[in-house]
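Ticket #4471: structure export looks truncated?
Reporter: QA, pipeline team
Priority: medium

Steps to reproduce: submit the single chain below to the structure queue and open the exported record.
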Amino acid sequence: MSDAPGSRWPFSVSVVIPALNEGATIGGVIEQTRVHCPGAEVLVVDDCSRDDTAARAEAAGARVIRRPYTLGSGAGVKTGVRAASGDIIVLIDGDGQHDPADIPRLLDLIGPYDLVIGERDRAGQQNAVRWLGNSALNRIGSYLVGIPMRDLTSGFRAMRRHVMLDFLHLLPNQFSWPTTSALAFAKAGFHVRFEPIAVRKREAGKSSQKLVRNGIRFFLIILRMSTLFSPLRIFFPLFVLVELLAVAAYAWSVATSGRLLHLPPSTVMFFLGGLVLFFFGLISEQVASLRFRSPESWLTVGPARE
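Actual output as written to the record:
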């Protein structure tokens, strides 16, 4: 049971807020969090802010962990999850875009679900380019794990801490931690729920996202997702494509030379290249499956499902 008197949930809660230069908003986020989730531990991981983020967070009643240098939001999440004491972790941004009033709705769904993600609509995305990129990630993620992934990049979520601890080594230190963690839960067979939420406009400061840099990051995230979670779903279609190219090269050779028993170099190259892709994908699939073997902690630690 939660340590808070009169708590509506049969588990303890820690709210983790990674923050970088959010002095203008962090106090209000913490105050509203304490109103809507009384008794929860509130933990702010200050990623070496250049403003008074840490001081304002402490003044608002949060426990603050200060970094000596900036590592990224993913690193802040990992630090917060390790340091938290609650059975359930709620992750929320410190910039005021997420409404702490939605926290109880996410927590109410923990039990039948192991990870509940706040799902934004199109209006909740910063711009059309970001929405298109996130939509593409959602489709690819859904293909890789075989279930609908409607908002992989949302950082507002509630999850079982003991499960998240086993996935921390998979999370990058930068921005793709929401995508990686959501796919990890789904790939391991845990129940994931997307709950619609409203997103406010950023109250202060500016986003650290850049279009060109995000384009490169988007490509790298896709590669990482593919090789980490379901390599064969990517490598097998590539194998089929390359083998079809081998057949096409052979057919072209026969059509132009009339020699049925002659294998042109392009046919041999495509055929062998396809086999390499297939066996590389097969090996990668076996390695990926080992990452999601159910550890003993999933069976013995943490609050039981309702």
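Status: closed, not a bug. The export was complete when the record was re-opened. Leaving a note from the reviewer for reference: Residues 231-257 form the longest helix (27 residues).
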